[in-house]
Specification:
The protein contains three helices and three strands. The chain is of the alpha+beta class and about 70 residues long. Strands 1-3-2 form a three-stranded mixed β-sheet.
């Protein structure tokens, strides 16, 4: 979390196959008046790679739970 804790909360989730990088230009603008919550999906960040499992996370349907 980053920004003003007294402001509204905005959650920023990146799309499948990328990371938080797309939010780098938006986050500073939001921080002025809001609390920004950013998170990474499993496997999108290098230290999180041990949590990634091919069967579950290699296709969007499986990532969403449909392929389990």
């Amino acid at each position: 979390m980053t920004g003003r804790t007294a402001g509204p909360v905005v959650t920023l989730a990146h799309g499948y196959g990328c990371d938080q990088n797309p939010w780098r230009l938006v986050t500073p603008l939001l921080e002025r008046d809001a609390t920004a919550v950013l998170f990474d999906h499993v496997g999108s960040w290098h230290p999180d790679l041990p949590s990634w499992h091919e069967r579950r996370h290699s296709a969007i349907a499986a990532f969403a739970g449909a392929g389990l």
